[in-house]
Amino acid sequence: MGAGGRGRDAQGPPPQLSPTRGRSTSGGWPDMAAAKTKATAMTMVSTSAPTTGLSATALRRIEALVIPVGALVGSALVFSVFLLVLGKSPLQFFGLIWTGGFGSAFSVQNTLLRSAPLILTGLAFAIPARIGLTVIGAEGALVLGGFMAAAVAIPLVTGGWAPQIGLPLMALMAMLTGAAWIGLVGWLRHYRGVNETIASLLLSYIAIATMNFFVEGPLRDPASANKPSTMPIGELYRVGPIPGTTVHWGLAAGLVLAVVLHILMTRTTFGFAARMTGGNVRAAQAQGLPVGFLVVGCCAIAGACAGLAGFFEVAAVHGQANASLVAGYGFTGILVAFLARQNALAIVPVAILFGALAASGGLIQRRMEMPDATILVLQGIIFVVLLTSETLYGRIPFLQPRRTGDRT
Amino acid sequence: MTGAELFIVLFAMIGGAIRVSTPFMFVALGECLTEKSGRINLGHEGNLVLGAMVAYAVSFTTGSPWLGVLAAGGAGLILGAMHGWICALPRVNDIAVGIAFMSFGTGLAFFFGKPFIQPSAPRLEAIGLGDWTGNPAIAQALQVNPLFFVGVALAVFLSWAFANTRWGLILRMTGDSAASARAMGVSIDLVRLLATAAGGFLAGIGGAFLSLYYPGSWNEGLSSGQGLMAVALVIFARWDPIRCVWAALLFGAAGALGPSLQSIGISQGYYFFNAAPYILTLFIMIASARSKSAASDAPGELSIVK
């Protein structure tokens, strides 16, 4: 439900401050407490009631694990039917995903390689989602961040700067670009009332067009005949693999950022204020929270994550900026974040799962003679089933805490 | 740029605006219908791409492009109905489901569309409105597809139906106040399901135009966000079908800017002009968000304007 409380039907129990819909079930609650309850108890279960057996928090955690896993299993079943209709074997399909994703040391490393950008773009969706924004522009921030890293590398490489200075500068440039790009979405949302979902997607298209414009025009490397690209950054400027593996350092950066951002969102004043804003903007404003700063801040963090993913795509994978940067990592990141329920730590295993799907795509294409879009269909099915499963929260009887209050 | 060149650019712009605007118009009318019922479907990008693929495939296998158009509408109808049904479940967010359907529809289209990238299917015929002038440039620019006129007629019909029919009243009431609709004994979920399905049908037809007329072939890069821009366009048009047509023409003209400049040899900044519709959409959204007239015209139940 990371897309926030806005747009929910009037049936949800959390008390809203909307004057036209005073359907609060517990009329006397102070607004602050109401917002806090919603911000922390994302499953919208009233926590005031005494429970028997497991605590309400534990039940909520179990529910938050059982339902997404159930949605994954459900999607696998739906996809199996799809495969059977096409006359293919689901067992072979899932076997190949296992082989291609985790079957050998090589495939595990391939999976991790692909999950590195997914962790970062997943974070780029999840952080704004905690403050109630549906920002789907990570693809654009990734592309533009990667492009800016490659662009700033041109004078650094030709000027003979040491990589120890140049690479951090490139990474910083990518993160700043991404932060400004998505930060703009947050600013437009808060100060101009522009819908952030549409604005961020439009900005993605603008970012891709901007990169194409420079890559095919002013910054085109004359040596790149078939595929217009910027100047290669050279071997010296390449970000190497983590020692002992073939996986580049982007994975480590993603892991560190996931932990840091998890702490930021759950253990700091900033995170609490952001989640409270996500629960109820008006209550947050009434409490004097700097809502504008929080919104722009969360969006800027998201953009920085996506920009960093772009930096690693350029510095560790492609070695230059070109159309290969537009690989759909930004959009898969949305699905990763939804499946992880916007939890920064949970994003890591989910990203690895989707990395495995991407890594086994080639194998499935060869062995089962199916188009590479097969993985896209599977992802689409997971996405739809997962969002449908949102309706189950608070409706599985044995996972509900017993409460004394009535519920409308 | 000489006078003659300007003349050619102008006509290429008008012709291009009509060509480029048609898919915008269908998606926008579909989205308008859906949003009038109080729900938003961001998944029309998926409908558009799937519609394009289905139309091309059906036209290729049966030889009848109009059958393709109908099949594209059917595919869009199914996606729209699924969206409408899922969003009727409690606690499901319509914006998020829209994003999911964007990905689902595109995935299906790419999966089944692979074998149809190479072959060429029979396309829709155009009506030559400029043939009488004898000027080939003008005649070429004024080749208008019948679907454009269907769209305009549909806009007029919808505008009339919203205001003057019982169905229009029920639809607007559901969109403005679910409580009143419930009090009148109207099934809100059913109205929204039908409106989303009908909207999906129209978006599918918009996709058929893409693959069967302009650009006129099926490939994976066919749609570049038209389905999503149409959502912004409906906000800009303030939920009025007639204004949707004008807004679509404006977007079409912005989209036709790059190709028409290219037709007289100006290819500098081609990618920049390609981004023109997105930039225009963004500025329009900035200008129209928070405007009082937009706020008063918006359906009251719509989550995107709350």
The quaternary structure here is heterodimer
DSSP strand (E) fraction of chain A?
A: under 5%
Q: Strands of the biggest beta sheet of chain B: in what spatial order?
A: 1-2
Helix vs. strand class of chain B = mainly alpha
Helix count, DSSP H or I runs of 4 or more residues of chain B: 14
Written description of the protein model:
The complex is a heterodimer of chains A (408) and B (306). Chain A is mostly helical and 408 residues long. Chain A has a domain of 235 residues. Helix content of chain A is 65%, strand content 0%. Chain A is built from 15 helices and no strands. In chain A, helix 5 runs parallel beside helix 7, helix 8 packs across helix 9 and helix 8 packs antiparallel against helix 13. Chain A is globular. The two termini of chain A are 20 Å apart. A two-stranded antiparallel sheet of chain B has the order 1-2. Chain B is an all-alpha fold. Chain B has one domain: Orthogonal Bundle (ABC transporter involved in vitamin B12 uptake, BtuC). Chain B contains 14 helices and 2 strands. Chain B starts with a helix and ends in a 9-residue tail after the last helix. The longest helix of chain B is centred in the first third of the chain and has 34 residues. Classes of the chains: A mainly alpha (408), B mainly alpha (306). Chains A and B meet through helix 7, helix 12 and helix 15 of A and helix 4, helix 10, helix 12 and helix 13 of B.
